[in-house]
Structures are given as C-alpha cells and as structure tokens.
Amino acid sequence: MAKKLIWAIPMIFIGVLFYWPLATILGRGFTHEWVHDIFDPKTLDVLWFTFWQAIVSTAICLLLGVPGAYILYRRKFRGQKILRALITVPFMLPTVVVATAFSSFHKWNTTSAIWIIVAHVFINYSLAVRTIGSQWSELDRSTEEAAELAGAGRLRAFVSITLPQLRGAFIAAAATIFLYCATSYGIILMVGGGLIHSLETDIARAAIGMLDLPRTSALALLQTLLSIVAFTISIRRGNSDVDFDGEGDGVNRSRIDRRDLPALLLTGLVILGLLLVPMVSIFWRAFDSSKGAFYNFTQFNSHGYRDLLNVSVLQATQNSLRNMLVSACISLLIGVLLAWLMGRSKCTRASRFFDLLLLMPLGISTVVLGLGYLVTFSNPLFPLRESWLAVPLIQSVIAVPLVMRIVRPAIVGINAAQLESAATEGASRAQIWQLIELPLIRKSVVAAAAFACLISIGEFGVASLLAFGDQATLPTVLYSLISRPGGDNYGMAMAVSALLMLFTFAVVLLVSLETPRRRRNPQNASA
Amino acid sequence: MFRIPKIAYIATVVLLLTGCAAKSSNDLVLVTHDSIVISKSLIASFEKSSGLKLTIVKAGDAGALTNKLVLTKGDPIADALYGIDNTFIGKAEDNGILAKSTVTAIDYADICFNYDKAWFEAHAIATPKTWLELTQPRYKNLTVIENPTTSSTGLGFLAATVARFGEGKWQTFWSALKANGVKVDAGWEDAYYTDFSGSAGKGDYPIVLSYSSSPADEANTAAILDGCFRQTEYAATLTGSKNPTGAAKLIEWLGSLEFQNSMPASMYVYPINKKAAIPESWATKAPEATSSLGENLKISQRREAWLKQWGNLFG
C-alpha cells in the first residue's frame, strides 16, 4: 500500500510536467488538415532526410566504433582511461557548441548535409565504442584463441566468433545513436543554416516560423512513433541500461601487439582528426583576437555588439548554473526513487510498458515540449510559464529517464538477503537505505548527477523557447552570438564555447577518475 | 556519509519560494526583436520621466517574436511590443494580439542590395544597376541573400519580386537566381558580417541583400536604390497587458524626438518623425530608396503560400 503511494510521486511528476503539456499541444493541432499534412510531399522529404542522415551517421559510428572498442576495451595500455574519458566529451558537449565548431568549417550550402553527418558521428562515436566495448571486454577469449590457433586470422575469428556474440550491443548502440541523430535539433538548425530540415527543425519551423499547429502536431506525432520504435528495439533487443563509465576492467584484456596496428591507426586517426580538431579549433579561435589573447573572455560582462543580448554572459552563466542545480536535484530525487521502485519490482508486461512511458521524454522533440509549456502553463491557475522554474523543470523531466537507467543496475545488484538480515536485526527502512543501499549505489548516483548536470547545462531546444528576457542561458546566449557574428560577438561565442567545453571535460574526467568500487560486497559473495 | 538528498530538498524549497516572487505595478515589459537597440542612457531617461521600471525582452527574430506572442495570447509575456514590421503586423492583428488603437509607426528602412565597390573595381566588372541583373552570368556566385523563411529582410525582397513579376511568375526569376549561384543565409547578420566582402567579415560575396542605410557605416560600399522594399516598424500595446497606461507612455516616448533622434545612429533606420535629426553624411552615403515596391501586397495572407513555393525551389 505504502509502495503504491510512493509510485504516485514520479507518476504525477511525469504526468503533469510531461504528458499534460504534450497532450495539450498535440491536441491543438488535431484537425482534419492533419492527415493531409502527414502525406504532404514536403513532409515526406523531411522524413526521408531525417531517416537517411540518421542511418548513415549510425552506420559510420558503428563501423568506426568496432576498432575503437577493440583498442580501448579489449586491449590494455597506459593512458587508456584518459582516452576513454576524452572520447566521451563530444557526447556530453552542449549541441550548440558542437554546431558552433562545425558550422564554421563549411562555407557552401551543398555540403551542409555532409557536415551534419560528421557532427553526428563526432557526438555519437563514443556511444558506439562504449556500448560495444563494455560487452566485448566481458567476452571469454578462449574460443577466439582456439580459432586463431587452428589457423583462422584475427579478422576471421572476429567475424565468425566475436561478432555474433556482440549482436546485442550492436543493436542497442544502433537504436540509441539512430534516435539521437533523428531527434537532433541544434546541429541541424545551425550546421544546416536553415536550409536543411529534419523532423525536429521542421517542427520548430512549422510552430515558431509558420504558426501551423496542425502541421506541428502531425510532425510531432511522426517523431513520437519513430522514437517508440527505436526505444522498443533498444529495450527488447539490447540492454537499455546506461553504463556511464563502462567498467570493463575484466581479466580478459591483453596488451597491444603488432597485429593491432591497423585498428590502432584507424582509432588514432578518428580521435585526432574527428574528435580533437574541432575541439582544439574552438580553443584556438577563443584566444585568437587582435586585441589580446584573453580579450574575448574580458567581454563576458558586456551584452555583445549592438546590445544583442538580454543579459551579459556572466548573468547567463548564473542562470545556467542555477538551472543546473535545481534540475539536477529534482531529476536525482525522482530518478533514484524510480530506479529503486523499478529495481525492486518484477519484470512484467505492465512494468515494461511503464518503462517505455518513462523513456518517452528522451525521444520527444524538446521544441514541442517547450511549445506545450507555453500553451499549457500560461493560465493563472498554474502560471509556471512566467517562472524561471519552467526551464529547469523540463530539463529534469528529460534527465529523469537517464538517471533512472544509470542507477537501476546498481540497485538491482544489491543483495536482497543482506537487506533482509538487516531488517530482521531491527534496522528501520530509513537506516537500511542510508547505511546499506546508498553507499552501494553511491558511484552510480554521482555518475547520474554528472549526467543530469550536463544535460541541463547544454539543453537548448526548451531554453530557446522558454528562457525569456533576463532568463537566457549559456546555450541560448551562444546561439544569439553565433547567429549575429558582427563586432566582438563571434569571438565571445568562441570563448563561451571554450568555457562550456572545459566544464564538460572537467565533469567527465571527475566522474571517470572516481575510484571504482566493486558493486558486489565481498560478504555477500561468501554468503 | 552521502548528503546530497537533504541539500536537494532544502535547495528546491528555497528556490521554489524565490521563483514565485510577485512583480510590482510600476514594472513595464517591452518585447522586441533581436536587432532593436535602445541605449542604457535612453532607458534611464525614460524611466526617470515616466516613473516606470522598464525591462526589455528580446524574443528572437521578427517572425519568432510574432508567433510567440500569438501562442501566449491573452497572457502576454510583455506589456508593449516594438519592432513588428509591415510584413508581420497583419498576422498580429488577425490574431488579435495587439490593441488596435495603439498601433503606431516608429521607423522605416529600405531593403536594397549593397555591393562592395572595391571588389568590382579590382575585378573590372560593372556594378549591377538593378537586382534584375543578378541572374546574369557575370554576377554568378557573387550574391548572398537572407532566407525569407527565417529573416524579415529576406521576406521583404521576396515580396518585392512578387510585386515585380506577379503571382505565379516570380518563381522563374528565383530559379534563375538559384542557378546563378546565390547563397542563402539564415539571417542578416550572417549574410552581412560573415559572407559579404565589403564588411569587417571580409567574406566571399561582393553583393548582399541589406539596407539602403548600411553604406553609412562601410566606406567602400553602395546600395542599389531602385526597386527596394520599404519596411516599416511599429509599436503597440499587447492585448491583456498588465500595464496598459505604462505601455501607452512608452509608445508616446518612442515617437518623441528624444528617441527618434537616436535611431539612425543606433539602428540604421530612418525615424518616422520628420522633425527628427538625421546625420548629414546620410544624405550622400545612406539616402532613401528612389523607388520601392511590394508594400501594398496582402503579405500576412500570402506569406505562407509564398514561403511554401519558395521552399520548393530552395528547400
């Protein structure tokens, strides 16, 4: 009974803050024009572009990810851990920063689609490496070695023996990367220069550019269906739980040898050319000013060239940090609670459905959600829109599913017998949580907190709609600066990007350097 | 000991409380598009004379600004609006977001092509006399314009082409423009500061869609003053404003000489008040267009159809 009441907290949270505004905005557009809009040739074009760029980006990520996973997770060498952290940085970077890096690389319209794909690979490469790598590192090496002894080359042994065993990881990585690429907003908006449209940017164009709610709603529904398919695949066919730093320090790893050279070269090339060059170029441009190396950073107190910004970069930083604290706290509370509830329940059809319901915020267009907030919460009874809290609240709704997926494996891993014996010895529920469960899941909670912080700091779609006036955040300020590059604005944009990059790097490094703690308690193992 | 949950509770409660603080009745919120500039000393002077506390909210480009206001109709994000132009005001009026009697013209500007004189001298190519010539082979890959879907500058030029060629016929001109390698940018700043060779950005394109007043600030550029689109910007009180009297005071002040005198220098637009001072150099460097067209079209009703057709050519 008490547990049912506790279930109500996350249900109400996600119901009020996610499904209600979503239903309101979709409902507004549900008219007879709606079917017509779905079969509009323009919509089909947009759908086709969304689809093929996501497929191509995913395929490239997986292809490059295999040698990467092999080198970084199946082999062993000095500095591996730092490298693993380094490749994660692009995935954690605010999309506006990535878009800033790539939009300055190209000059011609015709190649925009290619640059969009390159940017997507830049972001998601580490996702492929980690997902494939962490499963690979758990695989037994003996069959492969036997095959090699029997005369099969390493490549052949990989294709016939290892690859089938990695199938689950491949599917999970593919579904997730596809989803991220299909719903990407900032990248397509900025790198595409307003000429190339995916579902997500077309939703924004239909809503904010044209005020065409039937079309907005039709497109949003298409995107929702796409997300449901991708999620269902990743839940059914692979492990959908997120492993933040992909442990993978199993015993199955051997040192790098000469035959690894092709994989090593390819991975080195990807890390240097694809991942490092865009990041270094931002830094270089941040300090490249005729008025002194730090000039761009000294402009953080100003409102930009011709008073472009509502707030100075410093005030935007304060807003972003405040939003980050609030949204991380809320998403941790709700996410850990959910992980605890889900981790302690049996896996039934109902729980799997609920799992999907909880995942939806990840696959929904943030633009649609922001619009939903605009129209739902502007009544005097629930004036959330006027409050700055709207932005951190939506950010926490987006972060909750990830927090839950990071913490849940740790909670499932806690030995139930130990909790029971503590209870028989007279420990209260609160004591058990504080003294036994919490220390055991501490590491994943820290990882989840880091994740939630980075989601909030980098979130752009919602903030661009709801962070009015003096509530501007770092990504919205950055977007304003980079889309109006006159005067000092361009340099300031680069400096803001450099700072966001440093922040991301610091968080990722902190989490991955945290001393790994065994999840299993030695006492349990012997019991 | 792991303490985050406790801190989280406290922080959340404190922040919830501070987030709900009420606003006082002396507050006046003005919403504008991103390119409006009102200097701090002017704001201070208005606040002093009116006794109001003025907050300015920039809400994106002119289109996003209008649509956000339509979506939040009845409970507007501001009290007054400044910067909505003649391409969008019809839409705003149709949706009932403006108090009709308060709509007041404040400034105007002419959307004309600019070219980089130095570039044309160096390459010994004749400068274009009208934008009709931009489809000619000698101007191939030389022009950058703004996307009419995302930029009011781009939309003004699109309206001018519709007025020049007529509905159903303007597409031929645009196809020729595309075939001649015109570059389309999302916004004016991108086109003017990044891609135009005559500005500080030193871009690759010597012809840009900009304003007749832009050469006032760039020594070696000139505007094609024939066949421009005249863009007029308005101010108005928003329906449902919490401070309509304050909004009326502000609109009156925007039309006063104090503010009108500041506009040429701060925003490169012509003041609507004919008594307002215009810098002397503007007579030679930034004169008004000699002819303009497109303003009398029913832009708010036709816009979506135009943009759809334009999107079919360029999308």
Question: Helical segment tally of chain A?
Answer: 24
Task: Give the chain pair forming the largest contact, with residue counts.
Answer: A-B, 54 and 61 residues
Rg of chain A from C-alpha positions?
Answer: 24 Å
**Oligomerization:** heterodimer
Shape of chain A: globular
Number of domains of chain A: 2
At CATH level 2, the architecture of the largest domain in chain B is: 3-Layer(aba) Sandwich
- In angstroms, what is the radius of gyration of chain B? 22 Å
Poorly predicted ranges of chain B = 18-22
Largest sheet of chain A: 2 strands, parallel
Number of strands of chain B: 10
Largest sheet of chain B: 10 strands, mixed
The percent range for strand residues of chain B is: 15-25%
The CATH superfamily of the largest domain in chain A turns out to be MetI-like
Shape of chain B: globular
Describe the structure.
The complex is a heterodimer of chains A (527) and B (315). Chain A is mainly alpha-helical. Chain A has helices spanning 2-28, 33-38, 41-74, 80-92, 95-103, 112-136, 142-149, 154-165, 167-182, 186-191, 199-209, 213-237, 261-287, 295-298, 313-343, 349-363, 366-376, 390-412, 416-424, 429-458, 461-466, 474-483, 489-513, 522-526; strands at residues 75-76, 254-255. Chain A has two domains: 1-17 and 298-517, MetI-like (MetI-like fold); 31-242 and 265-287, Orthogonal Bundle (MetI-like fold), CATH 1.10.3720.10. Chain A has a two-stranded parallel sheet with strand order 1-2. Chain A is globular and about 70 Å long. Chain B is α/β, with parallel strands linked by helices and 315 residues long. Chain B folds into two domains: 23-108 and 231-285, D-Maltodextrin-Binding Protein, domain 2, CATH 3.40.190; 110-230 and 287-314, Periplasmic binding protein-like II (D-Maltodextrin-Binding Protein, domain 2, 3-Layer(aba) Sandwich), CATH 3.40.190.10. In chain B, strands 1, 2, 3, 4, 5, 6, 7, 8, 9 and 10 form a ten-stranded mixed beta sheet that branches. Chain B starts with a helix and ends with a helix. At the A-B interface, helix 11, helix 15, helix 17 and helix 20 of A face helix 1, strand 2, helix 3, strand 6 and helix 8 of B.
